[in-house]
């Protein structure tokens, strides 16, 4: 059992990265990881050595996230007092091209359907194999591959439409 706890601990940085990409909110991401770790530790006796601990923990995180989304749909999010105050508009856009491109990509990823974003994050960001990502999502590898292809195509479309057209140089 101690080995399982060590493997769970080794997954924490990747879980935090994945949670932040899913939620786009550092505080919610930390809460999500904490809930995931609590559940994984409490239910570590249910883990079976037939699969990887990493896939199992990521599946727990994803299930907790999905449960949170369902719960949030049923109850409206409270409006923060800071958001309601006039004059709290964000400062002007950052002019650094790299940061703009990154922000545009992040916004485009948030616009993807949940199932496509989840697949893209596991494969592209967490560098999971197709088989491992399919195990996390509890879907066949073929389904994962088609979702990934649709996610990549949608992401390309979302990021290219806002991109300025470059003129050819003669």
Task: Write up this protein.
The structure is a single chain. The chain has 170 residues and is mainly alpha-helical. The protein has two domains: 1-76, Orthogonal Bundle (Rna Polymerase Sigma Factor, Chain: A), CATH 1.10.1740.10; 96-163, Winged helix-like DNA-binding domain superfamily/Winged helix DNA-binding domain (Arc Repressor Mutant, subunit A, Orthogonal Bundle). It is 71% helix and 0% strand. The chain has eight helices and no strands. It has helices at 2-23, 26-42, 53-74, 81-84, 97-111, 114-125, 130-137, 141-161. α1 (2-23) crosses α6 (114-125). It is globular, with a radius of gyration of 19 Å.
Q: In terms of topology, how is this protein built?
A:
Elements: H1 2-23, H2 26-42, H3 53-74, H4 81-84, H5 97-111, H6 114-125, H7 130-137, H8 141-161
Helix pairs in contact: 1-2, 1-3, 1-6, 2-3, 3-7, 6-7, 6-8, 7-8
CATH topology of the largest domain: Rna Polymerase Sigma Factor, Chain: A
Low-confidence stretches: 163-170
The CA-CA distance between the termini, in Å, is 66 Å
Coarse shape: globular
* Radius of gyration from the alpha-carbon trace, in angstroms: 19 Å
Q: Strand pairing plus helix content: what structural class?
A: mainly alpha
* CATH homologous superfamily title of the largest domain: RNA polymerase sigma factor, region 2, helix turn helix motif
Structure summarized in a few sentences:
Residues 106-155 form the RNA polymerase sigma factor 70 region 4 type domain. The chain is 71% helix and 0% strand.
Features:
disordered C terminus; Arc Repressor Mutant, subunit A; mainly alpha; 170 residues
């Amino acid at each position: 059992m101690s080995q399982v706890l060590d493997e769970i601990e080794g997954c924490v940085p990747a879980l935090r990265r994945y949670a932040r990409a899913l939620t786009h909110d550092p505080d919610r991401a930390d809460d999500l990881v904490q809930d995931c770790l609590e559940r994984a530790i409490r239910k570590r006796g249910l883990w079976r050595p037939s699969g990887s601990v990493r896939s199992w923990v990521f599946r727990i995180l994803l299930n907790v996230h999905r449960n949170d989304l369902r719960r949030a749909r049923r109850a409206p999010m409270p409006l923060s007092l800071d958001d309601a105050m006039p004059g709290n508009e964000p400062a002007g856009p950052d002019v650094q091209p790299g940061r703009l491109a990154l922000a545009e990509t992040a916004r485009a990823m948030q616009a993807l359907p949940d199932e496509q974003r989840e697949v893209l994050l596991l494969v592209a960001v967490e560098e999971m194999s197709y088989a491992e990502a399919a195990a996390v999502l509890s879907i066949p590898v073929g389904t994962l591959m088609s979702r990934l292809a649709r996610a990549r195509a949608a992401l390309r479309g979302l990021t290219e439409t806002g991109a300025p057209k470059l003129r050819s140089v003669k």
